[in-house]
Write a structure and sequence with these properties.
This protein is an alpha/beta fold. The protein has 15 helices and 19 strands. Strand 4 and strand 5 form a beta hairpin. Helix 5 crosses helix 6 and helix 12 runs parallel beside helix 15. The protein is globular and about 70 Å long. The C terminus is likely disordered.
């Protein structure tokens, strides 16, 4: 049995940020468990061709670990994973790997969280506090398509890419036109025949990617102040993008014009262009960045099937419009179960599981603490995602808030249900008039059980920082007697 002050679940950006924030606050008694065999989270799991970040690399990292060695404006997936491994090594963070969480239960008699882990490290962990840093892009969403199980060839989700399969020269069907598909389709079209099934077109703007030269990287390393200024500039540019994503009419019109010009420049066929033009508000769905997707479609290197995959008959894929395509391999670029977190059913608070508490959509106080779950915090969970800039900025703010709350607590921290309800009402009010709610699309930001915006924070990072900074402890119920910590 392991006894600690804090148990952290997950060793991606959020888990490492939490470990660093705890140490900064003087909390050394913690353990970090990870179900996989290495750190990295999303960037460990997603290894498909072309995987990269769509946030500028110098903004997509920890504030206290600037990286002058990023290869370009946008980092590739393996670079980000290597960065996280390096941060863990520099900080001396040593997670317990291959230790999936099997259950986490609040024991009110002893005022502890009792965790059971599996894998190659089965054990019981008792902790005064629990931090769920499990991410939101962890469990692939596999569509319910009649006959899918009958497909005889290689078939896998984009986040579980099978590198043992040689796709060279094959006919490949790709389902989905979200962020992963937009990156991987141009890459595999270089060596295979690709048919892309598009249910809904995306708004796509130029990525304008470029590499950093050796002299650029040397300059970043030699002048940390210049690197800090670059990060500040990228931060300001990211925050400025919020206007176009959230419904500001002028900003959205300008961004929409850029996206349409990008489409018209690379796709000359008017019928194909029409099929690729969204009919919903800019920002309603995630806005994608790509310099290569439209050229791949426009050149004929990729066959666009502007219809959803409706059924499968052996090797034949049948679109909703009746068109039939015979393929050798199938890639499901169909996203993740983001609005219903898979870890939630493993966590039991005072009276219910987290999944039950979130049965009508995720709720919280400060996108971080949940009523009915004492001394428990969630990073990158309810309303903590962003559609305009780096999510790492949000994670670091949450980690700081949690660390300060734990470092100064005098008893059990129980979120006042009224505080959670008030915060939820704030979110609903702020989201009500945004394109995410009114833009005429179905998006993964909104929980289909309640129709609420449960993933995105409907404001800027600076507003989130101010909101958490204003938290003065009154969000927690009074604790009459502190029974101490382990």
């Amino acid at each position: 049995m392991t006894r600690v002050e804090v148990a952290i679940v997950g060793a991606g950006f959020a888990g490492l940020a939490m470990a660093m924030a705890l140490r900064q606050a003087g909390v050394e008694s913690f353990t970090l468990i990870e179900r996989a065999k290495s750190v990295g989270g999303t960037w460990r799991d997603n290894t498909y061709p072309g995987v990269a970040c769509d946030v500028p690399s110098h903004l997509y990292g920890f504030a206290n670990h600037p990286n002058p060695e990023w290869s370009g404006l946008y980092a590739e997936g393996d670079e980000i994973r290597a960065y996280l491994e390096r941060v863990a090594e520099l900080e001396g963070i040593d997670p317990t790997f291959d230790a999936p969480l099997l259950s986490a239960v609040w024991d009110g008699s002893y005022e502890i969280w009792r965790l059971h882990t599996g894998g190659s490290h089965p054990e019981v962990i008792e902790a005064s506090a629990l931090v769920l840093a499990c991410g939101r892009l962890t469990e692939p969403a596999i569509p319910e398509i009649p006959g899918l199980e009958s497909f005889p060839g290689p078939m896998f989700h984009s986040s579980r890419w099978d590198h043992d399969v040689d796709l060279t020269g094959l006919r490949i069907g790709v389902v989905g036109t979200g962020a992963s598909a937009v990156q991987l389709v141009p890459e595999i079209a270089r060596f295979a025949e690709v048919t892309l099934f598009q249910r809904t077109p995306a708004w796509i703007v130029p990525r304008d990617a470029h590499d950093y030269s050796d002299s650029d990287r040397a300059g970043f390393a030699a002048d940390p102040a210049a690197l800090a200024r670059l990060r500040a500039t990228l931060d300001a540019e990211g925050e400025a993008r919020f206007a176009s994503r959230s419904g500001d009419q002028d900003a959205a019109a300008a961004a929409r014009a850029i996206a349409l010009d990008h489409l018209h420049t690379h796709v000359r066929n008017p019928t194909l262009r029409a099929a690729l033009t969204p009919d919903y508000a800019f920002g309603c769905k995630r806005v994608l960045l790509s310099d290569e997707f439209y050229p791949a479609i426009g050149s004929g290197a990729v066959t666009l099937e502007a219809s959803a995959l409706a059924s499968v008959e052996g090797s034949t894929l049948i679109a909703a419009n009746g068109t039939r395509h015979t393929v050798d391999a199938l890639v499901l670029a169909t996203g993740f179960a983001a609005s219903r977190q898979p870890y939630a059913e493993l966590v039991r608070g005072e009276t219910e599981t987290l999944d039950e508490h979130w049965s009508a959509g995720m709720t919280s106080f400060g996108s971080t603490a949940v009523s009915g779950f004492p001394n428990m915090f969630v990073l990158n969970g309810p309303n903590a995602s962003l559609g305009h800039t780096s999510s790492v900025l949000m994670i670091e703010e949450q980690a700081t808030y949690v660390a300060q709350a734990l470092a100064t607590r005098t008893g059990v921290l129980r979120v006042d249900p009224a505080a959670e309800a008030a915060y939820t009402a704030e979110i609903d009010t702020a989201a009500a008039s945004t394109p995410w709610m009114t833009g005429g699309c179905n998006n993964w930001y909104v929980d289909d059980r309640s129709g609420r915006l449960t993933l995105l924070w409907p404001a800027t990072v600076s507003a989130f920082r101010a909101r958490l900074s204003a938290a003065d402890g009154s969000e927690f119920l009074p604790t009459p007697v502190a029974r101490g910590s382990l």
